[in-house]
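Hello,

Following up on my earlier ticket. Below are the four sequence lines again, exactly as submitted.
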Amino acid sequence: MSDTAPFSTDEMMTVAAARELTDGKVCFVGIGLPSTAANLARRLHAPDLVLIYESGAIGAKPRTLPLSIGDGELADTADSVVSVPEIFNYWLQGGRIDLGMLGAAQVDRHANLNTTVIGPYEQPKVRLPGAGGAPEIAGSCGEVIIVLRQSTRTFVDRLDFVTTVGFGDGPGHRERLGLRGRGPSLVVTDLGLLRPDPVTCELTLTEVHPGVGVDEVVQRTGWPLAVSPQLRTTAPPTHEELAWLRRLEAERGTRA
Amino acid sequence: MSDTAPFSTDEMMTVAAARELTDGKVCFVGIGLPSTAANLARRLHAPDLVLIYESGAIGAKPRTLPLSIGDGELADTADSVVSVPEIFNYWLQGGRIDLGMLGAAQVDRHANLNTTVIGPYEQPKVRLPGAGGAPEIAGSCGEVIIVLRQSTRTFVDRLDFVTTVGFGDGPGHRERLGLRGRGPSLVVTDLGLLRPDPVTCELTLTEVHPGVGVDEVVQRTGWPLAVSPQLRTTAPPTHEELAWLRRLEAERGTRA
Amino acid sequence: MAELLDLGRAIAELVHDGDCVALEGFTHLIPFAAAHEIIRQRRRDLTLVRLTPDLIYDQMIGMGCASKLVFSWGGNPGVGSLHRLRDAVEHDWPAPLEVDEHSHAGLTNRYVAGAARIPFAVLRAYVGTGLEEVSSTIATITCPFTGERLTAVPAINPDVGIIHAQQADRRGNVQLWGLIGVQKEVVLASARSLVTVEEVVDELTLRPGGVVLPSWAVSAVALVPGGCHPSYAAGYSERDNGFYTAWEPISRDRAAFSSWMDQHVLAAGR
Amino acid sequence: MAELLDLGRAIAELVHDGDCVALEGFTHLIPFAAAHEIIRQRRRDLTLVRLTPDLIYDQMIGMGCASKLVFSWGGNPGVGSLHRLRDAVEHDWPAPLEVDEHSHAGLTNRYVAGAARIPFAVLRAYVGTGLEEVSSTIATITCPFTGERLTAVPAINPDVGIIHAQQADRRGNVQLWGLIGVQKEVVLASARSLVTVEEVVDELTLRPGGVVLPSWAVSAVALVPGGCHPSYAAGYSERDNGFYTAWEPISRDRAAFSSWMDQHVLAAGR
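Thanks for your patience. The regenerated structure is below:
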């Protein structure tokens, strides 16, 4: 890492997610890290990435990072603004979105997600925000990228609640449920990248971020983590990636 | 009729229909006589009549009579222009229309309508235009006015095809079918006005137009026609009604 | 991304014999030029879908392009019959025409379900009518919450959806305004789509009432000024009402029709 | 025709104890002033419906207006939790809160069915999730044409729908623009409706992206400039992002919350 500047784990996560967003893809973007990653990709290698926000903005090209999913900047710069019913029925359910990005409070080995409750549903220890767009984003987008910090609290053997289906109980389950998208293709964490095994659908560590040991990742996973025999190290953020990311963050919420 | 100008049977029909359109009502308007009657009513006693065209114009205030249901004049003068799905789902099915006007090739004693075929369906003698908006207009509008010329070809004992349900086979049938509007309230013909009997739902002659005999109406009806004991004569078109109607007709299709 | 193609190439690439094709536009923005190109390219055995067949399908049916028609109101608006449509249904000329017949509400919802990629739509329609009896595309469905019985109609997903719009930009984004009909639904319900436009502009400026279709949701755009005549494009042309009246005697007679089509449509391709 | 009323009278006439009330607006145009008036008038036992409860329902729940919440995402966007919502669900403070929980797609379609006055909507949703198991408002439905299994959700028809818009004219016609959310659906799904507006103008001029609700489809209009703060009205105000951040410590503590509401909401009515 001699020729790279110091970077934070959040920066590594954002850059790793952005790299997956190839030019021309149509992305369903939530606020926070997904929106930052998508807009970073637009500045770098994917100028024609199409950003769709569930608030109704299609083809938004925000000049600065929005602070909420409903910022005026998104409507002002969109190719088209439509109603929320239209976004969900014609565009998401219509199968027109290549890629969605989701966060979660918990993920399991088959990339199912919980954003509903910690503890029992009827008497929750923590009431989480709930489903939002996630179940149908995971059902209908061509693929889904999941982003969350890795710990035994978040990478759990058994979800407290299944809000969103990744691969369900494993191979063939999505097909049996009639889910149309291919499901999660990547999980980005502060420690590395995990991808579903093509046969078992189980999340497998394929990359560790620079300076992270495999043992640490295994310890911070609530199930016996599969590790790819071809485990690689994530390329650290380049100077250009970091410069654009920091500029975007610094200008967040300002009007261009 | 000494103080009235001569008038045609079409003029009498249009004026009689217009008189039923009371101010403030929301009307689903088809092209031709219904559109003429609605715009005549707007010029006379109903300046706040709300005109809805199935092409998507809500609150159209055409300055001259449109020639088609999709004239630009309708969009240009509307309070709101919406998609055709929205017109049918949110506005018509949504139960927001007080009154619809329909024509037909055939009507029966229970005010059911045929606009599909003359002769058998699979080998029609005459292929008529079909349903258009009629079945759902008759189902969902608060009430429906039917306008057609009266003869044994049009007032038939048995429809060749039931395109649109008026009162079905009689009392209670609309309710059994789950139709939400009250159904036909008036049939306007070139000979007079017919209204459904409140008990039997059978069309009953309640007014004859000036100069028309009851015998003539009975002869030009394909079933034994019920005649109201309180049969009246339609008031002839007033000078004002005729003047406005003729001005509207003369200016039809011109841009204001 | 939508390709900017000339009309002949767009039809050749997108429309094949046997396809289900919907050319939409409710009085406004009817894509006549695209229909004429389909006629010139002698497409056969098409299933034609359209709320109001209008003169555009009268011409295609009379020229033998169609084996099936899905529709809800088949007349010459304000004038009278569609004689070519009637001749096909009543006398199998020039070929038999199978009919799948709906109301506007029903057919509209079939497009809506198609655009939303669900296999059916639910509405209050058809109950008590003969349409229920003669149609295989009308069914009863029961609400799982209230037990109420409603009507279901199957989604329509045409192979090709064709509309006319006012503008596209050079990247293929499309804008239409005025009466917008079911145009968005048809494009989104179809596997492939073509938009003919009055004008290609450097950049779209959103109009009041404007509907924008992003380039990546459209297969091809073709510049065809006046491509909706005798219909009209708000802001560009007026409806040629005289043509609709003149069509009555032309279409009433098989020979007059064939001669008119030969002279005004087929000759344009020579 | 919509009556032009002052906000206090509009809430008094339209919103009753025990009503099902939806105050909508997706980040943009959230009708905070109407919510505050409901709080001041001490309405109780409301069923509150909203895609994103946001600060507006955090305040109403914390002030004891609600006995039930129908929602799909309950967070402080970009900041964290809705602490009053959590406190009600986790600790029954100030009262127990029944929850009917959906996804955005599902709840949106419940409004769509409500606006279209059919008892349910069909979509691809929820299959395999725990939501199916805990909810009585999610059911399976089979396509009568293909046999495919999909999801049905029941219509929502609130007693009152409340939205904020940019403009009304003196006759009560309403225009909103920018992100339009589910506002039209909520007004049309509801038995009664109230629109608070930034401005009353002599005549509405249709804007690009403008949605118009005719006066006769709305029960009442109230002029409340700034009535969506800390949300925003495109063309009139900017979102007060600082308020959303400041709400976190206020709402985290019961006493701080009560004191803030007393000072900033209840006091405004004295």
